[in-house]
Design a protein that fits this description.
The strands form five sheets. This protein has a five-stranded antiparallel sheet with strand order 2-1-7-6-4, with helices on both faces. The chain has a five-stranded antiparallel sheet with strand order 9-8-12-11-10. The chain is built from 20 helices and 19 strands. 52% of the residues lie in helices and 19% in strands.
Length: 626
């Protein structure tokens, strides 16, 4: 079944009703008298709604431009180098050149692909340290921009409302000299500025300011794009200063002074009203943005509305006569045919099967049956799209959760107990006093190696060999610290090249040490075993065994319950359970393994014969080497 692209505009209801064509004609004659008035009211109401849509779209586009500009200024907060440049002082000439080059490269990519930001200016608490202006203005040797800096600083102190920025309108920045090409164009020399204070993270204080400039021509282009040609407009900021206007002579004036009749009608955030301006009657609509505080007013003359209504009334009459004649001659023949089509379609729907989801019903005429078939076809298309969308959404969800897990992993790495570093260094100091430098050197080497390997973030996957090297360094230091602690490994040569998620085993090893041997004054043995369990299926088997105090059955069941849950539910658990019971490190490891391998891995906690706890991880891997 294929969909026919050529539709014949007809209606079953109208063709059946035409049996009373004489009544229809009489009613039509009496209805003509009220057509003009109804159409005028309709067009006024329609234009009010359309102007409201135009205003909403225009303000939304303006707000989006401002949001994008505001986001650019956030780089000054998020980039550590920028903060260092603003906080520093006493730079040499070479350092100033390097700082300026860094800022230029940082912001160039942001503004080179967009046409809304024409200037970026950055200041520390004393002077301008960087500017980038697409108009290439000249700046004298004295770089006298203090007046501009004071304007930026004073406006940055106001309450922010646009992505953390404050908006104001002004001319070109003081201290810069622009060519006549820009000065002679009122839409170029008047600008909107977004300014914000830049604060350091610690201590939280103002270390500078950033200002972004865009000419009001961008506002004009947006209005020209979204508003009809016969609609006049005014855009004013929250101080009622006219930012952009279809009458360019009013730009920069105060709305209350320039158009007092319009200003007095604005009593709410949005609305419509009728007023006379210069002897002409206008339909006006306005709306104020909750985001930027911008007020947009649109105006359309009633003369243009009447012109549209007059043309519509003529066409309606002609079409009414034409339709009456067509219906009169078609009713007898077409009624029976179309009723048969409706019955046939109902039978087809009743016998509809799932395999028919790939088919479409053929459409010959766009009457009620045609609309019903077309809607049914659209429903089939929508079902198919929803199925595809569901699969894509699940795939995107999994990717997003993996990304969140990577971030959680980075966070976990930063949570390595600072007491470990402190106690280790203190122990090294004591050993240095007792044994001399040779042993201290070896311990330092182990410590450096551990932190170098454990903070490795360039890759989410590492080989077993790399993971074991990091564990050896960690446990060597712990064995130095606790003389009665033993660490044993049994690593098969054939698994050294197998890749596993980075920083997977250290949290489990530390968990055995802290929870299994702590209450025994760290007297005992921890054993790590890694080997191929079933070579033909590429199953990697990892055992972490301790002879510590053991684990309660309740906690054992809790940990094994985590292993049986899905990756998403495990991940959510990390944020729902508070305190030590959350087992953050263990849950994180289980969640990551589930996300990477899904059903191809298992993690099982059990009690062993030595009275301690064993962790057994099985992973079905794809290959042995990178």
């Amino acid at each position: 079944m294929k969909r026919n692209a050529s539709y014949k505009r007809t209606s079953i209801v109208k063709r059946i009703s035409i049996t009373n064509i004489l009544i229809f004609l009489l009613v039509s004659i009496f209805s003509i008298a009220g057509t003009l008035k109804l159409n005028i009211q309709y067009h006024v109401s329609r234009d009010e709604k359309m102007m409201d849509v135009y205003i909403s779209n225009t303000l939304s586009s303006v707000d989006n431009k401002l949001k994008d500009m505001g986001r650019v200024s956030l780089i000054a907060f998020s980039d550590n180098r920028v903060q260092e440049i603003l906080k520093g002082f006493g730079y040499t000439y070479q350092e100033e050149v390097e700082n300026e080059e860094y800022l230029k490269n940082l912001y160039f990519s942001m503004i080179s692909i967009r046409d809304d930001i024409k200037g970026i200016y950055m200041f520390n608490n004393e002077t301008m340290v960087f500017y980038r202006d697409s108009a290439s203005p000249s700046l004298g040797l004295e770089r006298n921009v203090d007046e501009f800096f004071q304007v930026v600083k004073s406006n940055a102190d106001f309450e922010t409302n646009i992505s953390g920025c404050h908006l104001y309108m002004d001319g070109f920045p003081e201290g810069f000299r622009y060519s006549d090409t820009y000065k002679n164009d009122i839409f170029q020399r008047n600008n909107i500025y977004l300014v914000r204070p830049i604060r350091s993270f610690s201590p939280y204080e103002i270390i500078g300011y950033i200002a972004l400039r865009t000419p009001i021509r961008k506002m004009k282009d947006i209005c020209d794009e979204y508003l009809e040609k016969d609609i006049s407009y005014v855009i004013a900021d929250e101080n009622n200063q006219i930012v952009c206007c279809s009458d360019q002579d009013s730009i920069g004036e105060n709305l209350a002074d320039e158009d007092s009749e319009i200003y007095e009608e604005i009593t709410d955030k949005k609305g419509t009203f009728t007023t006379k301006i210069g002897g002409k009657k206008y339909l006006c609509a306005y709306q104020k943005s909750d985001y930027s505080g911008m007020l947009l007013i649109t105006m359309k003359t009633y003369a243009s509305i009447y012109l549209e209504v007059r043309e519509l009334v003529v066409w309606c009459l002609l079409l009414a006569v034409l339709c009456s004649l067509i219906v009169l001659f078609s009713v007898q023949k077409m009624t029976r045919k179309n009723l048969k089509r409706l019955v046939d379609f109902s039978v087809e729907v009743e016998n509809f099967q799932p395999d028919d989801l790939i088919n479409h019903y053929e459409i010959h005429r766009m009457d009620e049956v045609g609309i019903l078939k077309n809607s049914f076809n659209n429903m089939i298309d929508r079902i198919n799209k929803l199925v595809i969308s569901e699969y894509r959404a699940r795939d995107q969800l999994q990717k997003a959760e993996i990304s969140e897990q990577k971030m959680a992993m980075l966070y976990l790495k930063q949570q390595i107990n600072p007491h470990f570093l402190y106690n280790t260094l203190d122990m090294i100091r004591l050993k240095a006093a007792i044994n001399g430098d040779a042993e201290v050197s070896e311990m330092l080497m182990k410590l450096v190696k551990f932190y170098r390997l454990s903070t490795r973030v360039h890759s989410s996957m590492v080989t077993v060999k790399e993971e074991v090297e990091m564990l050896d360094a960690y446990m060597s230091l712990m064995c130095y610290r606790y003389s009665e602690l033993n660490y044993q490994t049994e690593i098969s040569e054939e698994v050294l090249g197998v890749e596993i998620p980075n920083f997977t085993l250290q949290p489990l090893l530390e968990n055995s040490l802290m929870h299994g041997l702590k209450d025994r004054r760290y007297c005992g043995t921890i054993t790590l075993k890694i080997f191929k369990e079933r070579a033909e299926e590429q199953v990697l088997s990892i055992w972490i065994i301790d002879d510590g105090v053991g684990i309660s059955q309740e906690k054992l069941d809790e940990l094994n319950d985590y292993s049986r849950e899905s990756a998403e539910s495990i991940y959510r658990t990390q944020f729902e359970v508070q305190g030590e019971a959350a087992h953050l490190g263990v849950v994180n490891v289980i969640s990551r393994l589930k996300l990477y391998y899904q059903s191809n891995c298992s993690i099982c906690y059990s009690k062993n014969e030595a009275g301690g706890t064993s962790v057994h991880i099985q992973i079905k891997v794809e290959s042995e080497e990178r």
